[in-house]
Each structure stands twice: as structure tokens, then as C-alpha cells.
Backbone:
DNA sequence: CGTTTGTTGTGAATTCATTCACAATATAAC
DNA sequence: GTTATATTGTGAATGAATTCACAACAAACG
């Protein structure tokens, strides 16, 4: 299962909810394709791979798609997350109420100096030393890294050690398992997604400064 | 020029700076490959495409690489950005001092109610109505969207209208040009990158709940 | 009912990034 | 100076994701 494919599936699902809320009951592959920016044939291929079938004329049934996608995506909400590092990014996330609508719940924050963190969200904040116990007790599997860059790698180690299996990293250093030795022999895999805002901005500057300056047809 | 390729080039550059700071003068393709997580042959291919050549034994000269990469990436810093929507995410970004080290400068924030924004960063905050003038006057080309989802599409229109040509979007709806009509006949292209934190988390939940539960070799 | 229309479903073709494999060659060693 | 060694540079092979193209078919229409 391809990363891009899974992303598309999530996008389909998100869109289907909106269409359903609007009162629609069926969609065509080209509606979905237009909306998420892919070719209709790819939409059909995606569904075909998952054995989701439509109706030779009337398109796909929205309820059916949502139901099947939920199964494939394995979401029997709500999903629980912890935030490690309760600074600017960390608290912005903890205060973001919309997560609830997405079936996502931030159940705790951890910091080296929890006494400095303003507790304006309903999320409890603990000292980082308590993380391992907490994660083990709650069986938490996903966590967000929002500590300073210099702490990121060590924090990752600690989280994996505690039992975290999925990490969203905001530090501007790219984390990968195996970055620091020792861990990769642990048998449980851990998935890491890096959100590198600096890199994204640099990419935009490139597009704006360089790519768009060339003859537009030659540029990417 | 491929998106992935450009991302790799930025990563090479970032890494090369660190190596240089450590006192190194030359690197091999496998050093770079290990560090950013790609095959050495891909590193060589990347450089080959850009006609950056190394030395048949001693690898690549770091200074030369940095210099050439800077040219390719078109960075004659510092690059200026505006932030539209000065809420939790927006202010977190404005307060992030590390951008300076990356040659990125946030020059202004815009909001519908600037009087409510705590001005704890050095960045001036203006009413959204002043954005167009500001952007035109400063020739700003890149902006960040951090307004509520419901405002995101309209905000994008306004930014493009004002002359912004690269957008980093934090709203959880995927923005694309052509989303709302009318704009796509404007001849200037605008690049949009969406950072969808909810989607990233959902993806992690999928990995953790579904993919890793199957026989690990069959899962993605 | 028969015909037209529009949409799915999918095997084949295509495209494109990555990896392979190895010849070319600069440096080091002796 | 000759030989050994390490690393580059790149054309060919591979592999994967996407698009193409069209047959199959359900619904709508007359
Ligand atoms: N703020 C931004 O706009 C922004 C932009 C791009 C990248 N980032 C990255 O996001 C990360 C967080 O940024 P921020 O601006 O929120 O930083 P911040 O300094 O506001 O917050 C960091 C928090 O982590 C805590 N902390 C430090 N060491 C810790 C440890 N070992 N364990 C647990 N907590 C620890 C600190 O007490 C602090 O509360 C950084 O890596 C930064 O590079 C931030
Ligand atoms: N905070 C998070 O952790 C988080 C996580 C995921 C996604 N997001 C997305 O990021 C965006 C911003 O989130 P936030 O938490 O910072 O929201 P927020 O409500 O804290 O801030 C939004 C700001 O935008 C301003 N605003 C509203 N309409 C505007 C307009 N038309 N023009 C200019 N400014 C306007 C508001 O005054 C407010 O200051 C949202 O789209 C949200 O979905 C946020």
C-alpha cells in the first residue's frame, strides 16, 4: 500500500463526508478526481484495487464508499495522540479544537518545564519523565514532536522506547529510525513523518524565484 | 525539475552547511546518501543532472556544491514572507526566530482583527485590508495562510490577486488554483503547498493501526 | 423493447524516478 | 613509474504509479 494512495483515500473520505453533508448520495469518478486533483481513471483504479465497485451508470454510492474506506483506513475513532514539547507549536496544537471533529484527541502534553506552560487548553501537561509510564499505561501509539531541534533525536528515542509507533515531527531536522543506532534492532516498526516548514518555504522560494522565471513550459 | 529532486537539493545544501561547519572539505556520494536517506547512486545522478562534478577519487568539494546549489536553488537571501491569519499557528510562526538562520524573514502579519493579536514578536501586524497595498509595494511573492478553514479559499484568491506567487497553506482544506474559478486565466502561476496536519495524523493512525498489524512484509 | 448515452472497470501502454552495473579515472601506495 | 584502490559518472534495466483506451454494461429515453 502506497503512501500516496493512502493519502488519496483519506482525501476521498474527507470529501465524501462533505458531499454527504450537502445531501448528495452518489458521485462519479470525475467529481472526485476534479475535487482532489487527480485523473478520474486514477480514482476508478484506486477503488478497483480496493474492490469498491460502483454502478455502471449512476457512479458510486457515497455511504458505501465511506463505510468501506473506514474499514480500509482502520479508523474506529477517536484516535489518541500525545504532544511532546509544549512550546509555541505544541500549545497551538493542543488548543486546536477541530481535531475532535476529525476523530483525533490529544490526551496529554509533556515538557521539561511543565510549570512554564500556560494551561489554556483542556489537555493535561506532565513532566517529560512521566511520559514512558503514561504511554505504557494508556497504550498510546502516536505522538507529536515539538521540542527544539537539538532535543528532537533524543526525544524520538525516548518515545520509541516508551512504545510510540507513529511520530509526527515538527523539528527542522529530518528524523529517521536508525538515525541514532541501537533502535533498529527493536522489532516493532515506527513510522515517522517530518513536517519541515523551512524546507517547504525554501521550496516555494525556489518555485517563485527560479522555476517560474524560466520559460514556463520548461519549468516544473 | 521534479519536486522530490528539489527537496533533495535543499536537504543536501542544509547538510553540507553542517558538514562545512564541522570542518569537512569534501564528501562522497554515500555520505550524503546515508545522511538524507537515499541511495548513493541517486546522489550522483542528481549531481550529474545539474552538471556538478566531483573528483574521481576524492569525492565532491563541499564549497563548490554549496555554491552551485545556491545558484540552482536561486537563493540570494533573505527571502521575505507574509503571514495571513495571526491566530495560534500564525503567531507561532511569527515568533519563530530560527527562520532568520535559514534566510527566511517574516515581514508582516495580516488579520481581520489585528487589535486582538498579541504583538510579542517583532513582526508588525496589519489589517487584512492593507495586504494588497503592502504586497504590491514590497513585491512580496510568498505568503502563509493560517486563517480558519472557512476563510482559506477566499484568502487565497485575495493573495493571488495581490501578487503572491507561492503559498504555504495550513488550513485543513486542500487549496489549489482553479478551486474557485476566474483565477486560472490570470497568466502568472501560483504554487501552493498544503500542510495538512490532520491528514498527516490520519496517515500515521493508518500505519499504526492497519499496516503494521498485517504481516509486516506485506504492509507498506 | 430497442437504441442511445454515460460511466465503470481494467488490461495494456506509458511515463518517470530510481537503482544497477560497470567503465573511466584520479589518487594513493609502494 | 607501476599497480592497486576507491569513487565518480552514466547508459541500461527495473519498477512503480499513472494514464490510456475501450469493452461491458446499467440506466434513460423514445
Ligand atoms: N514555531 C515555529 O513556527 C516553528 C517553525 C518551524 C519549525 N519549528 C520547529 O518546531 C519545534 C518546536 O518549535 P517551537 O517554536 O514550538 O519551540 P519552543 O521553544 O516554543 O518550544 C519548545 C518546547 O519544548 C520544551 N522542551 C525542551 N526540551 C525538551 C525535552 N527534552 N523534552 C520535552 N520538552 C522539551 C521546552 O520547554 C519548550 O516548551 C522546533 O524544533 C522548531 O525547530 C517551529
Ligand atoms: N492550531 C492548530 O494546531 C492547527 C492544526 C491543524 C490545522 N490548523 C489550521 O490552521 C488554520 C489556523 O489555525 P489556528 O489554530 O491558528 O486558528 P485561530 O483561530 O487561532 O487563528 C485564525 C486567525 O485568523 C484570523 N482571521 C479570520 N478570518 C480572517 C480573514 N478573512 N483574513 C485574515 N485573518 C482572518 C482570526 O482573527 C484569527 O486570528 C486553520 O485553518 C486550521 O484549520 C490549525
Residues:
Amino acid at each position: 500500500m502506497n503512501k500516496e494512495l493512502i493519502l488519496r483515500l483519506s482525501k476521498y473520505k474527507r470529501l465524501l463526508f462533505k458531499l454527504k453533508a450537502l445531501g448528495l448520495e452518489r458521485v462519479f469518478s470525475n467529481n472526485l478526481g476534479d475535487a482532489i486533483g487527480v485523473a478520474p481513471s486514477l480514482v476508478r483504479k484506486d477503488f478497483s484495487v480496493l474492490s469498491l465497485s460502483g454502478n455502471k451508470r449512476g457512479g458510486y454510492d457515497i455511504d458505501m464508499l465511506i463505510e468501506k474506506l473506514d474499514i480500509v483506513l482502520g479508523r474506529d475513532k477517536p484516535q489518541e495522540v500525545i504532544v511532546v514539547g509544549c512550546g509555541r507549536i505544541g500549545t497551538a496544537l493542543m488548543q486546536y479544537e477541530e481535531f475532535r471533529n476529525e476523530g483525533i484527541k490529544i490526551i496529554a502534553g509533556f515538557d521539561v518545564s511543565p510549570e512554564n506552560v500556560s494551561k489554556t487548553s483542556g489537555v493535561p501537561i506532565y513532566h517529560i519523565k512521566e511520559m514512558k509510564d503514561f504511554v505504557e499505561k494508556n497504550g498510546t501509539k502516536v505522538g507529536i514532536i515539538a521540542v527544539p531541534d537539538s532535543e528532537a533525536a533524543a526525544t524520538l528515542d525516548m518515545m520509541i522506547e516508551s512504545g510510540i509507533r507513529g511520530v509526527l515531527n515538527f523539528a527542522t531536522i529530518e528524523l529517521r529510525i536508525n538515525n541514532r543506532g541501537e533502535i533498529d534492532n527493536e522489532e516493532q516498526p515506527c513510522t515517522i513523518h517530518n513536517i519541515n516548514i523551512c524546507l517547504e518555504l525554501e521550496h516555494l522560494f525556489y518555485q517563485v524565484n527560479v522555476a517560474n522565471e524560466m520559460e514556463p513550459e520548461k519549468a516544473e
Residues 180-184 of chain A have pLDDT under 50 and may be disordered.
